[in-house]
Design a protein that fits this description.
Elements (H helix, E strand, L loop, with lengths): L7 H35 L7 H14 L3 H8 L1 H21 L3 H29 L5 H29 L4 H4 L1 H15 L2 E4 L7 H24 L3 H24 L13 H31 L4 H6 L2 H9 L4 H34 L2 H27 L4 H32 L8 H20 L2 H4 L19 E4 L6
Helix pairs in contact: 1-2, 1-5, 1-6, 1-8, 2-5, 2-9, 3-4, 3-16, 4-5, 4-8, 5-16, 6-13, 6-15, 9-10, 9-16, 11-14, 11-15, 11-16, 11-17, 13-15, 14-15, 14-17, 16-17
Length: about 475
């Protein structure tokens, strides 16, 4: 289903969710470029400004597990509206913040909105679109989410250099206000009639695990925490995760139902998605570091190098669905995974050899392969869930995305340090360091193909009805609010 073929109400709904995806993923990266300028404006030490980024990341990690239950209990329209409202209010508070403490609190508000915006938007698409059109719809709404992290640093640098850092947050206000109005008018309020009591014990365990693992991985990758700090946090996070698993198998209505892993496509999709996203999560940090440190590009020039990747991602919008339906999930995921790893290594080799013009088509290819793989992974993981499992399955997918973004950044940081990052100063030393890092990241990208070759090779499902709504209730946007 293309947006042109969809009914008018569905078409606008897809645009609304896509814009929400773009806002959330853009804001996760746009701030990093502005931290030095923000520190100067607020009279703070730049080293303390990392708390601005960490406050957002941790809030998202902690609240993500609750998003599915909230949507099932109160309806997707109400929760999506609250998400946009929190995100927009947090953006205004960030722009007006007079000191670091206020700015950190405002970022927590933004993170609370961001934690619900993406998973609830995706759940809305799952419930609103017929299964035969689900992959096309998911492809449409997730592409902006892939583009957000790519353009975030460039846009942030532009706004800081030519306007002020406040506009990094102010640009969210008109979009957010229009988004709230559109949500109220256009989004149906899918909910479940019978929702079990909220699993507070399970939430505390899984939120603690997410917070510890995210903070440890961010610390290893970007905060330069020592291993004596990172390792205990990782251990604590994994212990909380194990305790949650024991709790889920005993609880009457756990936050994440163990039945999810009995759905073959979800179980295999979750494993493949986790390992498949680690290498991808490394690229937003590795690429700008390589271009600036390894090749001597200016920050603006390095930012502009993301444009070919964006073009590649957008170019696949109309062909992803037909490709998966023709070749099947197994072939598409396996081949795109292998080709993506080889392409990324090729970009590194061309850069180190000085063949800069060849990097452009390779970056276009990287964007196309990545978009195809993401669309196929997302759809395969959710496609066989019934309505009662959709909320928790969708939240688990979002948790996997969150963890693997941090894990990818941590992987880059550890590899650069392992290959001489603290000592490499000469050009040949930097080139050797980046060559080894690119080869390892390429291997991490290719390895999940060993999982993808084992998945069911059926093409995207074709049915004529809406997803089975079970005990769902739907309040249309035109009646009861």
């Amino acid at each position: 289903m293309s947006t042109e073929q969809a009914p008018s109400s569905t078409r606008w709904l897809l645009w609304l969710v896509a814009i929400g995806f773009f806002m959330e993923t853009l804001d996760a990266t746009i701030v990093n470029t502005a931290l030095p300028s923000m520190a100067h404006s607020l009279g703070e030490n730049p080293l303390r400004m990392q708390s601005v980024a960490i406050a957002y990341i941790l809030t998202v990690a902690i609240l993500l597990p609750a998003s599915g239950w909230l949507a099932d209990r109160f309806g997707v329209r109400r929760i999506f509206l609250c998400a946009i409202a929190l995100f927009t209010t947090g953006s205004l508070a960030c722009a007006l913040a007079p000191n670091l403490s206020t700015l950190v609190f405002a970022r927590i508000l933004q993170g609370a909105g961001g934690a619900m915006m993406v998973p609830v938007g995706r759940l809305t698409v799952f419930k609103a679109v017929p299964r035969k059109d689900f992959m096309a719809a998911m492809n449409f709404v997730t592409l902006p989410g892939l583009i957000g992290p790519l353009v975030g640093p460039t846009l942030g640098g532009f706004l800081v250099e030519y306007v002020s850092w406040h506009w990094i947050f102010l640009i969210n206000l008109p979009i957010g206000l229009l988004g709230m109005l559109a949500t109220w008018k256009l989004m149906p309020n899918f909910a479940l009639e019978r929702v079990p009591r909220f699993d507070f014990g399970g939430f505390i365990l899984i939120a603690t695990s997410m917070a510890m693992l995210t903070l440890a991985l961010e610390g290893a990758g970007e905060l330069h925490l020592t291993m004596t700090t990172v390792v205990p946090m990782l251990a604590f996070g994994f212990c909380a995760l194990m305790l949650y698993w024991q709790h889920a198998n005993r609880a009457e209505a756990p936050l994440f139902n163990p039945r999810l892993l009995k759905v073959p496509s979800f179980a295999m999709g979750a494993a493949g998605s986790f390992f498949g996203r680690i290498g991808t999560g490394a690229l937003p940090l590795l690429t700008p570091l390589f271009l600036q440190m390894g090749l001597g590009f200016s920050p603006m020039h390095a930012g502009m190098m993301s444009i070919p990747t964006v073009i590649g991602s957008m170019s696949m919008k109309r062909v992803v669905v037909g490709t998966v339906q023709h070749f099947g999930y197994r072939r598409v995921l396996s081949w795109t995974t292998v080709l993506l790893g080889l392409t990324v290594v090729g970009i590194g080799l061309c850069g180190l050899a000085g063949y800069y013009p060849l990097m452009i088509p390779l970056m276009v290819l990287q964007g196309g392969l990545n978009a195809t793989r993401f669309s196929a992974m997302n759809t395969y993981m959710l496609k066989d869930l019934d309505n009662s499992l959709a909320g928790s399955g969708n939240s688990m997918m979002s948790m996997i995305m969150q963890l693997t973004m941090s894990l990818g950044a941590a992987l880059v940081g550890l590899l650069l340090v392992a290959f001489g990052g603290h000592f490499a100063t000469e050009a040949h030393e930097l080139h050797t360091m980046f060559l080894a890092t690119y080869l390892c990241v390429g291997a991490a990208l290719i390895a999940p193909a060993l999982l993808f070759v084992r998945i069911d090779d059926r093409p995207a499902p074709v049915v004529d009805d809406l997803p089975d709504t079970g005990n769902a209730r739907v309040q249309s946007a035109s009646n009861t609010h």
